[in-house]
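Workshop exercise sheet. Pairs work together: one partner reads the sequence aloud, the other fills in the structure field after running the prediction. Swap roles for the next sheet.
Pair: D.N. / O.F.
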Amino acid sequence: MKDKYDDLLNELVILQKMYLLYSHGHMFLEQSAISLLKILNELHKTTPKIRIAGLGKSLLINNMEYGNDNPKVGYLSQLLGGRGIFSISFNLGVELGSILDFFYLLNAIPNKSNLLYHRDIQIAMHNINLIDIEEMDYSGIRYSYEDEGQNHSTDIVLNKNQLYEILKSLNSAMDSFKKNELIDIAMEEINKMSPDEVSDFIAGLSDEAVSEILKIVKAKETSISPLLDRLVVLDASRRLAANGKVAEFSDRRSNDQLNKLIEGEAYELYVSEKYKQHLGNISEYDSQSLDKFNMTDLFDKVLISKTVVIALIHLIKNELDPGMHDRFVESIYNYIDEFLESGDWYFICSILNNELVCTYLEQDSTVRKLSEGIINNKSYSNNHIFEVLKVSGPKNLNWLMDLYIDESEAENRSSILSLILLFSEAASVEAINKIISYPTQNVSLLVPIIENNLKAIPRVLLLQLLSSDLANVKLLAIKILLTRNDYQVKDEIEQIILNGEDDLVIGVLDLIRDYKITKYTEALIGRIRTLYISKDHLKITLKTIDTVASIDDSGFQNLAKQLMRKRFTLSPRNLRIIKQHLKGVSHGKRFR
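Structure field:
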């Protein structure tokens, strides 16, 4: 049996170290968990329960004791004891999912923290199927799992008083293991206190006790609250200074300590309902399906990343030193880049209430990453992308319009147009600028953007359009100016009628009809030539007849008389076509 227990110790240590190396899920971690489960299955053939208990200087596996002179025993004792766990029991039938749940929770709790006693974590720990957890009992002061609805307020008050009395008698001659346990509990109590309560708590302790607390804080710096250790050190140092004693403390944190701080804060979020469901799904893997188990990602890396981001956002709300703040901000930005790349717009949208996130999304470099994420994921119609783009701002218009113009699929183009129209005013101006910069492109595509907010376009830009040599660009400018009741454009229209190219005149005729402008009737009649009616001029004459007939009855009568009296032309066939068309229009007007 000892050989089997030795194997169990070995597999426990291997799995823990594999977890530290591959905490996001990896084949080595998974294989190690399977190896541990196989050892447990072997042991369960002779005993229904395998209990591993820490005794301080030794480790007890069922009835077999191992001393801490064994490095593996010392490692496991520190691992469990540092998290406040006295014993763990693997019961008959334990499954792979339960083992992975336990190690996940074990590693999510920073060493020497009070997270184990967080109610949600207690629930998670004590509801792992077929694994029993027993917390440490610190000299009668017990923080055990409480069922919901029970009231233990009297016991808790009594235990705090016991703790306080014991701490008063703390001295350097006390056993170091017991001393550390007491300080751990003291730190857990302090972590629940307000700043004023911390000061009162420390004020009542002996200098010896305060010095010991200060040493522990200096050595560990692993509190969950970013300001807790500073608060303790500040009050403790004041106490000692008042009595003529010196206390030294370094305010610098190692990378490992920072990581523990982040992990600790993040775990407050890991116990959310969503993550509990994820852990529940893991339990589907049991000992009967080990042969089918292959390369499954048991840990949701994306979900872990999301909770870490939220934890970091919470942490930077504290008054951190500049170096720590900058590091946390950089980490948040790196994670956001990952979510932009993967197109997780729902999550990004969920953290938009944070000013830091919004500021980052407005940066030029982030706009580029956002554009790449949208294009690569084709997220044109995602509801959440609307909110993300609103925050990122109109800097996105340039690439959105390029995408809109180049898109060949009508459905995608319509969705991209909706994104552009989020920036109504800026979009209209940007569209005009695009036409000015690249006048040969398809102007008609940009018209819906421009028409969405005509009032926003500066007149100086419209005058630039009006001076274009391209008919469609000039006509667009005239249309916008007419819509805005800019009467100065009417002189430009008259010059086009008298001297403009035929295709430009035809476009102007449409605008005259649409806006029912009668002042140009005489100019239009003057434009008509009947000596030689070319093919193009025939088209203008017919369109002039239709236009004048629709807006000016007296002008139409005048035009009809002139054309019907005409007898001589170098193109008699075209003149006959004009007269037949004129008769048809006149007949239609009579029977309207």
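Discussion prompt: The longest strand covers residues 85-91. What would you look at next?
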